């Protein structure tokens, strides 16, 4: 009986996907899921292609093929270090943001004998799940209060720091679902007042703002290349070497100064370096263009959809790439709304897309007490989006709402 039910559920999902696939042939495509991943920039692809075809040496080999590969990695490290204003030795290349977060948290707990971690209930799962795993080993996590607008309550952070001085604090720079920004400098100041180590998941902000990690005062910072037109599967962790040493979590080789075993992903690292250059060269133009598109979508939705609102006031500020729309109750939930958009060629997201395509109500929406009967859709933009895509999206949203009503 149960197997028949599962089989029929699987069949209906396959059927729904086939309809979407078929419908997609007739509609324009508009990609508004840039927080999940961004399209790769052409110059990034070119730089990676050169490496893939011409530089295949293993950087750990002592012959000249290996030496060339090693030199390329070290040059990339120096260049990226300059963009972030850190020493090249403070950068550990990883397989993306998830690994960087795990390395920061598990690595500092192991080496610094951390017993208390302070974090927030609306972090990415790449922080929350390692915290859950560490709880089983006796490391306690204490969550700060979250303000109604999604911001970390500074008072609650200070209260926890007073209670647990010397903790590891892990708070994200920009929330990936609602775009709320953390004041990094103030948070770093508060952490250091109570001898705490400050780790920041900066996956959604590095490559979108000019970032000076030394000025911000953060001790550990995670970054992922595919969030700013670089390749998937590569990122980095910054470790403030003047202050801390952490333990590796992957063992088996001496790569990355013993901090991350495994043959380096050279095409990925070179692609990430080019993505940093691309971000730096286009920063202001991208910020202006994306902010304009976001504001335009928000304005048009307010005009055309009565009762619409925006989670955590994402229309008024926060990360400029995110607009999280809370639709009025009109008979379809987040999942149905996403499917209706998808049928019309529009890619957006409900909550975090990082966990197996699941669109069930997100932990962030729950924290903000958003009713599960209201569709919550995150539209996220990049410099490759256009106004005509936004116009198309608005017309299709109006169209979906009219169809449901009638
Ligand atoms: C805030 C945040 N942290 C971490 C991650 C994980 O990064 P990666 O996909 O590179 O593992 C994501 C991905 O969406 C994210 O948004």
Description of the structure:
With 406 residues, this protein is α/β, with parallel strands linked by helices. Helix 3 (64-84) runs parallel beside helix 9 and helix 9 crosses helix 12 (387-405). Helices cover 45% and strands 12% of the residues. It is globular. Strands 2-8-7-6-5-3-4 form a 7-stranded mixed β-sheet, sandwiched between helices. The protein has a 3-stranded antiparallel β-sheet with strand order 9-10-12. The chain has 2 domains: 25-41 and 283-405, Aspartate Aminotransferase, domain 1 (Alpha-Beta Complex), CATH 3.90.1150.10; 42-278, Type I PLP-dependent aspartate aminotransferase-like (Major domain) (Aspartate Aminotransferase, domain 2, 3-Layer(aba) Sandwich). The model is unreliable at 352-356 (pLDDT under 50). The site of pyridoxal-5'-phosphate has 14 residues, from helix 4.
Integer count of domains: 2
Q: End-to-end distance, in Å?
A: 37 Å
Strand proportion = 5-15%
Secondary-structure element order, as H and E?
Answer: HEHHEHEHEHEHEHEEHEEHEHEH
Number of helices: 12
Q: What characteristic shape results from the CA principal axes?
A: globular
Mean pLDDT: 93
The helix fraction, in percent, is 40-55%
- Give the second-level CATH assignment, the architecture of the largest domain: 3-Layer(aba) Sandwich
**What fold name stands as the CATH topology of the largest domain?**
Aspartate Aminotransferase, domain 2
Give the distinct bound molecules: pyridoxal-5'-phosphate
Broad CATH class of the largest domain: Alpha Beta
Q: Tell me the CATH superfamily of the largest domain.
A: Type I PLP-dependent aspartate aminotransferase-like (Major domain)
Rg = 22 Å
- The secondary-structure class comes to alpha/beta
Count of DSSP E strands? 12
Described by strand count, sense and barrel closure, the largest sheet is:
7 strands, mixed
Q: Which segments are poorly predicted (pLDDT under 50) over 5 or more consecutive residues?
A: 352-356
The strand line-up of the biggest sheet is 2-8-7-6-5-3-4
């Amino acid at each position: 009986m149960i197997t028949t039910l599962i089989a029929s559920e699987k069949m209906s999902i396959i059927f729904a996907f086939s309809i979407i696939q078929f419908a997609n042939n007739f509609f324009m495509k508009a990609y508004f899921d840039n927080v999940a991943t961004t399209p790769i920039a052409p110059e990034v692809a070119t730089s990676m292609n050169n490496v893939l075809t011409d530089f295949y040496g293993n950087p750990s080999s002592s012959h000249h093929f290996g030496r060339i590969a090693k030199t390329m990695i070290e040059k990339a490290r120096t260049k990226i270090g300059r963009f972030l204003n850190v020493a090249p030795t403070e950068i550990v290349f990883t397989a993306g943001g998830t690994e960087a977060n795990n390395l920061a948290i598990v690595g500092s707990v192991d080496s610094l004998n951390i017993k208390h971690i302070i974090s927030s209930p609306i972090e990415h799962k790449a922080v929350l799940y390692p915290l859950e795993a560490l709880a089983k080993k006796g490391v306690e996590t204490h969550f700060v209060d979250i303000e109604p607008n999604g911001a970390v309550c500074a008072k609650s952070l200070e209260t926890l720091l007073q209670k647990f001085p010397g903790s590891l604090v892990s708070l994200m720079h920009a929330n990936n679902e609602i775009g709320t920004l953390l004041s990094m400098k103030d948070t770093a100041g508060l952490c250091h007042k109570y001898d705490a180590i400050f780790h920041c998941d900066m996956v959604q902000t590095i490559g979108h703002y000019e970032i000076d990690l030394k000025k911000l005062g953060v001790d550990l910072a995670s970054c992922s290349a595919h969030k700013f037109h670089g390749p998937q599967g590569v990122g980095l962790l910054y470790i403030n070497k003047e202050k801390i040493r952490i333990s590796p979590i992957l063992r088996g080789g001496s790569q990355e100064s013993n901090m991350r075993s495994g043959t380096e992903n050279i095409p990925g690292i070179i692609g990430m370096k080019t993505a940093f250059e691309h971000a730096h060269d286009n920063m202001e133009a991208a910020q202006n263009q994306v902010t304009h598109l976001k504001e335009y979508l928000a304005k048009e939705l307010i005009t055309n959809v009565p009762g619409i609102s925006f989670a955590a006031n994402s229309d008024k500020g926060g990360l400029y790439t995110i607009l999280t729309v809370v639709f009025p109750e009109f008979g379809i939930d987040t999942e149905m709304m996403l499917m209706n958009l998808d049928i019309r060629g529009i890619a957006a997201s409900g909550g975090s897309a990082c966990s197996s395509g699941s669109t069930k109500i997100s932990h962030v929406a729950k924290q903000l007490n958003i009713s599960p009967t209201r569709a919550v859709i995150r539209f996220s933009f990049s410099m490759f989006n256009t106004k005509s895509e936004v116009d198309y999206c608005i017309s299709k949203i109006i169209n979906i709402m009219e169809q449901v009503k009638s």
